[in-house]
Design goal:
- The structure holds 2 protein chains of 2 kinds.
- By secondary structure, chain A is α/β, with parallel strands linked by helices.
- Chain A has one domain (7-283): Thiamin diphosphate (ThDP)-binding fold, Pyr/PP domains (Rossmann fold, 3-Layer(aba) Sandwich), CATH 3.40.50.
- Chain A has helices at residues 7-28, 33-38, 40-50, 74-84, 124-138, 158-169, 190-193, 199-205, 218-230, 264-283; strands at residues 65-68, 146-151, 175-181, 184-185, 188-189, 209-214, 236-241.
- In chain A, helix 1 (7-28) packs antiparallel against helix 10, helix 3 (40-50) crosses helix 9 and helix 5 runs parallel beside helix 6 (158-169).
- Chain B is an alpha/beta fold.
- Chain B folds into 2 domains: 18-182, 3-Layer(aba) Sandwich (Rossmann fold), CATH 3.40.50; 197-324, 3-Layer(aba) Sandwich (Rossmann fold).
- Helices cover 36% and strands 19% of the residues of chain B.
- Chain B has helices at residues 20-34, 52-57, 69-81, 100-108, 137-142, 155-166, 213-226, 244-254, 269-280, 300-306, 311-324, and strands spanning 17-19, 38-42, 62-64, 85-91, 115-119, 148-150, 172-175, 180-182, 197-200, 205-209, 231-235, 238-240, 257-264, 285-290.
- In chain B, helix 1 (20-34) packs parallel to helix 6, helix 3 packs parallel to helix 4 (100-108) and helix 7 packs across helix 11 (311-324).
- The longest helix of chain B is centred in the N-terminal third of the chain and has 15 residues, at 20-34.
- The relative contact order of chain B is 0.14.
- The chains are: A alpha/beta, B alpha/beta.
- The A-B interface holds A 65, 67, 107-109, 115-120, 122-123, 126-135, 137-139, 158-159, 162-163, 165-166, 169 and B 39, 60-61, 63, 65-66, 68, 70-71, 74-84, 86, 101-102, 105-106, 109-111.
Amino acid sequence: MSGQLTITQLQHKANDLRQDVIRMLEAAGSGHTAGSLDLADILAALYFDIMNIDPQNPQWPDRDVFFLSNGHTVPVQYAAMAEAGYFEKEELLTLRKLGSRLQGHPERNRLPGLENTSGPLGSGLSQAAGYAYALQYLDDSKHRFVYAIMGDGELDEGNIWEAAMFAGKYKLSQLIAFIDRNNIQIDGSTEDVMPLEDLYAKWDSFGWHVLEIDGHNIESIIDAVNTAKAITNKPTVIIAHTIPGKGVDFMEYDYKWHGVAPNSEQAKVALQELRILDAKITTGDFE
Amino acid sequence: MNQYFLNPKVFDDDVQQDTIRAGFGRGLKAAAEANDKIVALCADLTESTQVSIFSEAFPDRFIQTGIAEQNLVAIASGLARAGKIPFASSYAAFNPGRNWEQIKTTIAINDQPVKIVGGHAGIGVGPDGATHQMLEDIALMRVLPNMVVVVPADSIEAEKATRAIAENGKPCYIRLARPKTPIISTEQSPFEIGVAYVLREGSDISLLGTGMMTYQLLMAAKILADRGIDAEVVHVPTIKPLDDDTILASVRKTGRVITAEEAQIAGGFGGAVAELLSEKLPTPLMRIGMQDRFGESGEPMELFDYFGFTGEHIAKKVEDFVHATSQYHREY
C-alpha cells in the first residue's frame, strides 16, 4: 500500500478513524476513548501507507503483521481495518455487542485480519517477538516486518521487559515496536503511578534502536519506520509522544477519558470538532 | 475394550524404571524428526526438562528464553501464529504456575497448537519442597477451554503422548514427573488422546489413576486380591477430554470408585471424575491425592509413604472404603 496516499490524505484518514472511534464508543456505551483517539495517526500510517497487507486476503503469506498489545485501544484498529476493507464499516457499530466479531478486546479467531488476542497487558510484545523470531531464524523471510504497539502504562508489566530482553538478545531486526507515550494510565499520570523514565535509556540498554517522534506527525511516523527497516542488527522501538484524547479538546490530556465512552451529547460535540479539523486538514491549517 | 499390554514385569521388584521426562525428550525428538514445524523453547531448564535431547539434535529449532516464563509462552504464541508447533517447557511450578494468564489469553483463547510442558510436577520433585511441588496444575489447566491435559504414567507412554500432542492441532498441557518411575506399559500399549484404559478387570471397586499413581493402584489391586477384594484398575492418562464412556462403564459395573493423583484433589483429576459422576452416575467416591495442603521436603518415596500414596497405603484405604460402603449407583 506504500506511498499511494499523500500525507494530507493520510491525515484525513486519521481524522476519519477518530470520528469512527467516537461513533463506535458512543454506540457501545463503554470502552477506552483516550488511547483509541491518540493512536489514530499511527494506525492510519500503518494501515494506509506502511504495512504490506491485502485486506481481501487477510492470511496472505507475504503480509506484514501487526500486534496490538494494549488491546483496550482496539476500536481504532477496527476502524482502520474497516476503512482498509477487511469488513464493512457498518459493522463498526456492533463493537462490544453480543454476537459481534468486534469484541471489547481483540480476539484473533473472531475477526480475520487480527493477528493476536490481547487485553491483559504486557504480552503483545512477546507475541510479536515470537513471530519476528520465526521470520528471521526459522523461515528466512527477510522481507516481512512485524509491528507492535504498546501502551506506556503497560510498561509497568514485567512481561514487557522479558520480551525486550529476548528481542535484544536475538537482534530481531524485523520487529518494529511503538510505545504510545501519552503519559496516562487508569489511576493518573504514568510518572505518578509508576515512573517509567528514562525510557530512551532503558530500551537502549536492552539492545534496541530507539527513536522518539511526535506520534501525531504522520510524516515522522513513516520516516521512523523507514529508519527502523534500515537497521538490520537490532529491533527498533519508536517512542511516539501522543496526546491522550487527541483531536477532541475536552478529552485531551485528561486521564479520566482513559476508560470512558462519550455519551450522545459529548459525542456530538466531539464529532463537530473533528469535522472542523477535517476542514483544517484540507486547507493545510493543521498542526 | 482396548488391550493395554501391561508390562509383564510390572509386579516384580526389579521392574524397569525410567524417568517420564526422558520419555518426553525422546518423543519430542521423534516428533520433530517427522514434522519440521516443531520448535522447542525452554526457560533455562533444558537439561532437567530433557528438552536437551531435542536441542542437541535440532539446535536451530531450539529457543532459549531465559528465566522468563511469561515471555516463554507468549513467544510460543507468536511462533504458533507464524505456523510453528512450539513446545514451551519449564517446571510446572512456573509453567503454568506463573504464566497462566498468558496461556489463557495468548494460547487457549486463540486455540493455538502450543504445547505447555510442565516438568518436575507433583510431590515427586521431593527435597525441593512445597514451592517446587506443583500440585495445582491439573486444576489450573483443565478449566481452560480448548486445552488438552495429558498426564503420562511412565516414560514409554510419555514418548507416545508427546508424539500425539505434537500432531493434534490443539493447545495442550503435558505433566511430567522428575523421579524414575516403574514402567507399566510396553511398546505395544496404545495411547490415544482422550482414551482411558482398563488395566485390570474387577467387580468390587473401580480404581482410577493418572500419571505415576496408576502404578500404585496396580500394586494396591494386587494386595487387595489377596484380601478378597476384586478391584478394577483404570488408567486415565488424558484428564481433558476425559474418557467419560470408559469411566462410566467401569463404575456402572463396580458401583464404587476411588481416584488417585499426586496433585490437589480439589479441581484436579479426582475433581473431574467427581463432576462426571455426580451429574451422570452418582456413586460412592473417594479421592486420593493432596488433601488441601502443601507438600514438604523429603525423598520422593518417603513423601509417597508420608502422604499415603503407595500401593500399601492405598490398599488399606480401599479396604476400609469397600467395607464402609455398599455398591451403588444411580442412573439418570
